[in-house]
Design goal:
Elements lengths: L19 E7 L4 H12 L5 E6 L5 H21 L9 E7 L6 H10 L3 E6 L3 H5 L11 H11 L13 H5 L2 H17 L8 E2 L1 H17 L2
Parallel strand pairs: 1-2, 1-3, 3-4
Antiparallel strand pairs: 4-5
Amino acid sequence: MRNRRTGKIDRGEWTREPKARFVLFCEGSNTEPAYFSAIRKLWTGTLIEIETRRGVGVPITIAERAIEFEKQVRSRRMHQENSFEENDKVWAVFDRDEHDRHDEAVDLCEQNGIGVARSNPCFEVWLILHDKDYDRPDGRHEVQRELAKLRPEFDRKGRKIPNCEDLATRLLEAEARSKKQLRRRIDENAPFGPPSTTVGDLTREIRAADERARRKR
C-alpha cells in the first residue's frame, strides 16, 4: 500500500513465524535418524524441522555436544533481534546399555535445558512399543531379537532398519505404552530401570509443535 504522505510503498512488517526446529543429537547413526525422518514426513506442519546429528558417541559426549550447541544458539539469540533460532529445541537421544556416566549425562542435560530421550537398554525398546507392550528387563541383544520377531526386515547388526514409516503410524500407541511402562518403573523405585524409554516425551513435543503450526496456517 502506498503511503499518502511520503508517496512511498509501505511494505508492512515481516511477520513470518520462526520455524520450530528440533535438533537431535543421536547415539545411533542409522535407526534413530531413519525413525525421526519418518516422523518428520508424517507430522507435516510447515513450521517443523527435525535435524539429526548422527553417531555423536556415548551419552556423556552427546550431552556435552548438545549443551555446547545450545550455548551457541543462546549466544546468537542474545545478539540477533527476531532470531529464527528462538524456537529451537535441542534433544539428546541415547541408550543406557552399559555406558558409564549415563546418569551424569541425564543430569547435565536437564540442568542445561536439553531434552532427554533415553532408552534402557536401547532405542529398540521404543520401537517395540509401537506394536506391543514390553516389560521384560532384557539386555540389548534380547531386545533387538524381540524387535526382529515383530519386524523381520530389521537386522540387529545394523545393516537393515525396520520400516520406520509404518512404525510412525502407530506413534500414539507407542506413547501410551511407554507412559505406562515408565509408571511401572517409578512404582518400582527404578525410574531409569529396564525396560524404559522417554522418547515419547520428544515425540509429544514434536506433535504439539506441529499442532501449533497447523493452527497458525
